[in-house]
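Continuing from yesterday's entry. The apo prediction looked reasonable, so today I'm repeating it with zinc ion included to see how the binding region is handled. Same sequence as before; SMILES copied from the compound registry.
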Amino acid sequence: MTRKVDDLYECEECRLLYRDVSWAQKCEEWCKKYKSCNLEITAHAVNKTDLIL
Ligand SMILES: [Zn+2]
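Holo prediction written out below.
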């Protein structure tokens, strides 16, 4: 289950944040299945430095 954090969605496996729930779900499915990150998916994650701005 992805977790909603403010207006973002967190992959509970790798803790990356996404603005779009569909990317968070894709990330989590990938993380659970392969126990690694897919760069094509994580490229859509919210950069933590963006959150400070
Ligand atoms: Zn993930």
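Comparison notes:
- The chain has a mean pLDDT of 90.
- The chain has one domain: 3-52.
Will overlay with the apo model tomorrow.
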